[in-house]
Design goal:
Elements lengths: L1 E6 L4 E3 L4 E3 L5 E6 L23 H9 L12 H10 L35 H7 L5 E5 L18 E5 L13
Parallel strand pairs: 5-6
Antiparallel strand pairs: 1-4, 2-3
């Protein structure tokens, strides 16, 4: 399973004559194979000292923000990431962890192992709303064309690895 934590503390700055508000900071954290009790703020007390998860920094972020704890996570990574980035259920985006080089040349819009090119992504929506957008971590939402990358999806900057196949012992050939 995956855990998604959305944190949105509101920051307000006051000036001498008028209060000026700044955009709310939004931080989304998606962790693969992170169970409910792996988060300190969910851990059951009552087990032995070694059985309680300790996540003090994340505990503070959740305390000052908001946790979205009623979201759907697919049984493996790419469909969940594609759903979050597109705002669509995995069945309509990507239900398989396919090799990123799989392409259907007859379909230049949706014939890739990726979110379809004509789907609006989270980065583009946030950018349109005036946010600076940054993505860090495992992308796994497509890499077949520049349109499928974080920059093609509206992120200003990214520090990523593209796909679960891009690991040192199995490098992608893209």
């Amino acid at each position: 399973g995956s855990v998604l934590v959305m944190l949105a503390p509101v920051l307000l700055a006051a000036r001498a004559s008028a209060a000026v508000s700044r955009k709310t900071h939004v931080l989304a954290i998606l962790a693969d194979d992170f169970g409910w009790n792996d988060a300190g703020w969910h851990a059951e007390s009552g087990g032995g000292e070694d059985e309680v998860a300790r996540t003090p920094n994340m505990d503070k972020l959740v305390e000052s923000g908001m946790e979205l704890d009623r979201n759907y996570a697919f049984k493996f990574c790419s469909p969940t990431r594609s759903a979050i980035q597109s705002g669509r259920n995995p069945i309509h985006v990507n239900v398989q962890n396919m090799d990123p080089l799989n392409v259907n040349p007859a379909d230049p819009v949706a014939g890739f192992s990726a979110v379809a090119r004509n789907f609006t992504g989270l980065g583009a929506v946030m950018k349109k709303g005036g946010y600076k957008t940054h993505f860090a971590g495992k992308w796994d939402c497509g890499m077949a064309t520049p349109d499928h990358t974080p920059m093609g999806r509206g992120y200003d900057e990214s520090l990523i690895y593209f796909h679960h196949m891009c690991v040192p012992d199995r490098p992608a050939s893209v």
